[in-house]
Amino acid sequence: MRYRYLIGAGVALAAMLSWADARAQLWLPPAGGQVWYFGAEGGWTNLEDQTFKLGPVRLNERFNDGYNVGARTGIEWGPWRFEEEFRYQKNGYNRLDGIAVQGDRTAYAFMTNAIYDFGISGWGITPHIGAGIGVVVQRDGMRLPKSSSPATGLEITHGTSVDFGYQGIAGIRYNINPSLAFDLDYRYLATADDGSFRTSPQLGNLKTTSGYNTHNFVASLSWRFGPPAPPPAAAPLPPAPPPMRLRPQHRLHRLRSSNRFDS
């Protein structure tokens, strides 16, 4: 499953890069110290094993590898980037304490990030680190497989939880041209508190909780845009040479020459 997501993301990014390079001349280069940008992103998500809590009951939840897609917009200000990011993440359920289950856990992350780019002279790529805070909206749905018996397809949990989220960021950036940049990031996204969900009505509609800690590899392509650069100023003309001044002996020689011709 994980290789299918990685291969698909690689093919999509290769197509995006070739399209962007062929049409880069349509985008204006950035000007000045502040540049706005917009980016599209996608990649692979791993959701750590979590503890399913139902009163005194504690069960282990295991998830399949998943994917993430999203977008972000922000401003570059010197070595700093300040951005607003939206990312959708999805992981399917695998097992609940050794019992095969189906369904998935999805998250809608709305994050405010600050990123610092390290400018290293002579390098084609630049590393960066950052952090973000925001809101993570989780949706949970877990059920038994339809092939199980006797509770075929029984829903176990469902619901939505809104929680405070945070993330750490580390990655590298390659500037394709002045208007396009490619980033490859590791982003650790988690919630400060466990998400709160409910069991199905058949199981009493009881409150359950479960944590959310994810490891994300995110590739993105960002377009910079801003006012066009002003035309270069014309080179100033060289100053005129000072007037030639004759020495006294040269003036006397010219006066004698003039008198000789007059006589």
Written overview of the protein:
The chain has an eight-stranded antiparallel beta barrel. The chain is elongated and about 115 Å long. With 263 residues, the chain is mostly beta strands. The chain is built from two helices and 13 strands. Mean pLDDT is 82; it is low at 1-32. It starts with a helix and ends with a helix. It has a single domain (2-228), classed as Porin (Beta Barrel), CATH 2.40.160.20. It has helices at 2-22, 248-262; strands spanning 34-47, 50-54, 57-63, 66-77, 80-96, 99-100, 102-117, 125-143, 155-177, 180-191, 195-199, 207-210, 213-225. Strand 5 and strand 6 (99-100) form a beta hairpin.
- Tell me the domain tally: 1
**Annotation field: number of helices:** 2
For this structure, what is the CATH class? Mainly Beta
Average residue-wise pLDDT: 82
Q: How many E-type strands?
A: 13
